[in-house]
Amino acid sequence: MEDGRNSALSLCYRSLKNQTQVKDFIIISFLIILCFTSCKQKASSTQSDETDSINAAINMVNEKMSNEKFVGSWELKEWTAESNDEGIVFPFGEDAIGRITYDSNGNMAVQIMKNNRSKFLSDDPLQAQPDEVVVAYNGFIAYCGNYEVNLTTNQVVHQIKISSFPNWVGQNQIRYFEFNGDDLTLSTDLIGSNRHKLVWSKIDNE
Fold first, then answer.
1. Which of 146, 121, 157 is CA-nearest to residue 136?
2. Cβ density class 144-177: b for 16+ within 10 Å, e for less
3. How many Å apart are CA 191 and CA 16, to the nearest integer?
4. 20 to 30 A Cα–Cα from 30, which one of 23, 49, 70, 160?
5. Which stretches of the chain score pLDDT less than 70?
6. Would you say 144 and 110 are in contact if contact means Cβ atoms under 8 Å apart?
């Protein structure tokens, strides 16, 4: 009788011991899976961060290279305006002259005028006659400010601080750009009823 009881107790103990081992095994397995999942997520996050950093670095290099292509002075080769009513015209004539300059610090300036403009009767620019002012204004445009290049949209944004046309002061004027050899083409969306295209040639000695 005593032996049977001892045998039953021994069997019960082994059963409990096995259950404890199984329980421990399940807990350990769960911890291993949890640790593996956490490490995998961390590795994935690290890899994603590294990829983002690489892409950011590439974009910075591309932006710098693009900005460097702008830097310098450019001479106007041609300025045309296209409208549905008049077709293609030359706003300041086919012999218009101008210059646009970009520096490496994000500053820009542009001046365009009709060739061979009439002189004022007075040598004092503040003593011009009203009709002289009108003719002179209609043959000259200039502004300056800062610029930013957007490689994704092929746009250069002129952030205007000073302008001969008052309405543009404080505005951003967007130009679509295209490089072709030593030429830089800047074009616009509609300004009034016209789309403008200006072709500039790099000045070699600058």
1. 121
2. bbebebeeeeeebbbbbeebeeeebeeeebebeb
3. 87
4. 49
5. 1-66, 205-206
6. yes
